[in-house]
Amino acid sequence: MSDHPPEGLPAYRILTGPDDATFCRRVSAALEQGYLLYGSPAATFNGESVIVAQAVIWPGKRSSIA
């Protein structure tokens, strides 16, 4: 595995969106690329739908961010 994320992506990313299958696919895609979950997911209600967030981190950058 590379020390750097693929496709010029940042080492730390926070994925957000409605709590739906599309969001789950985005998190799954990040994991398939080699990212690791960072912290617990968060959820809020915007008056219409649940919005979720999940941070992911590239493994080689863990020690410099934590």
Automatic annotation (TrEMBL):
Q: Where is the DUF1737 domain?
A: 11-57
Give any Pfam family that matches. Answer: DUF1737
Q: What's the protein called, per UniProt? A: DUF1737 domain-containing protein
